[in-house]
Design a protein that fits this description.
By secondary structure, the protein is of the alpha+beta class. The protein folds into two domains: about 45 residues; about 200 residues, no CATH class. Helix content is about 40%, strand content about 15%. It is built from eight helices and eleven strands. Strands 6-8-7 form a three-stranded antiparallel beta sheet. A hairpin with a 5-residue loop joins strand 4 and strand 5. Helix 4 packs across helix 7. It starts with about 35 loop residues before the first helix and ends in a 10-residue tail after the last helix. The N terminus is likely disordered. InterPro entries: UstYa-like (IPR021765). It is a single-pass membrane protein. Keywords: Glycoprotein, Membrane, Transmembrane, Transmembrane helix, Virulence.
Length: about 280
């Protein structure tokens, strides 16, 4: 509905001819006394301003405290990109961080059959009978994973209580350190082999008398260690679930970008400490 406009003649009030700068007010509106406005407005403004700056100071102080606590935490615990306090000190300068897309995600054809669309290269999965390079690639990942470290490095890494005869390796002439990423890969490789007994043999044959004749205990150790390693890393990269018509439902799509440390750079450091120029020389008593 359109608004109506009155056609009656508008009545105007005469404008005062006095040049006093005041606009005329309707007769039923009384002007506010200026003196009262001064009394109200002058004390309120300073208090409002003071309250504003007090709140601002409190807010900024909270930000400073938070940033200081974060900085102090980073100083004490370290970061993923610069190295944690628990990382081996000499290895920290070799840490490089970048985004990498994972491979090996599962997919489904029109009949609902699962397959690996992108197994990655070099190859770490598949039938070892058809792809003998798989075993070589796994062995290459963890070769040289135990290195000699100096007494000073041992104290810095573990504390004085670990610098004793109990931790001295007489066969290698020094304190031995293994880097946990490579230990975890060793465990994963062991479980991989146990899933294919027709090729690698049973757990008893595969271990060949190692681990005190209790291969199941070693497998349990590996499973438990991998569990803790994954939970400790706390990777919160979101992975979507893609719909496959052949499957008739959604299935996780794991080939997403993750923030990673450069594996080859850290492996290069380890190999140099194993038998390169950075290797610690053994001490024979």
């Amino acid at each position: 509905m359109l608004p109506t406009v009155s056609l009656e003649k508008t009545k105007y009030a005469p404008v005062s001819l006095r040049d006093d700068g005041d606009d005329p007010l309707p007769a039923d509106v009384k002007p506010r006394p200026r003196g009262l406005w001064r009394v109200i407005s002058q004390p309120v403004f300073p208090w409002t301003l003071a309250a504003f700056f007090a709140s601002l100071s409190l807010f900024l102080g909270m930000l400073v405290d938070r940033d200081h606590d974060l900085w102090q935490s980073n100083q004490e615990l370290g970061t993923f990109a610069t190295g944690y306090a628990t990382d081996f000190g000499p290895a920290k300068e070799f840490i490089q961080v970048s985004q990498q897309r994972f491979t090996g995600g599962a997919a489904f054809d029109e009949n609902g059959n699962m397959f690996i669309a992108n197994p990655g290269s070099p190859l770490f999965i598949g039938d070892p009978a058809l792809h003998p390079e798989i075993d070589y690639n796994w062995d290459n990942l963890t070769w040289g994973r135990y290195v000699l470290i100096t007494k000073e490095e041992a104290i810095e890494a573990w504390g004085e209580e670990y610098v004793s005869d109990e931790y001295w390796d007489k066969d290698r002439g020094g304190y031995i350190a293994g880097f946990d990423m490579f230990h975890t890969l060793h465990c994963l490789n062991h479980i991989r082999k146990s899933l294919n007994p027709s090729y690698y043999g049973t757990a008893d044959v595969m271990t060949q008398g190692k681990y005190g004749g209790h291969p199941q205990v070693h497998q349990d150790h590996c499973i438990e260690h991998i569990r803790q390693f994954i939970m400790c890393s706390g990777d919160m990269t979101p992975v979507p679930a893609k719909y496959y018509p052949g499957l008739g439902r959604n299935y996780v799509e794991s080939e997403m970008k993750h923030t990673c440390r450069n594996f080859e750079a850290l492996r290069g450091f380890m190999l140099d400490r194993f038998n390169g120029q950075g290797a610690v020389r053994p001490v024979w008593n």
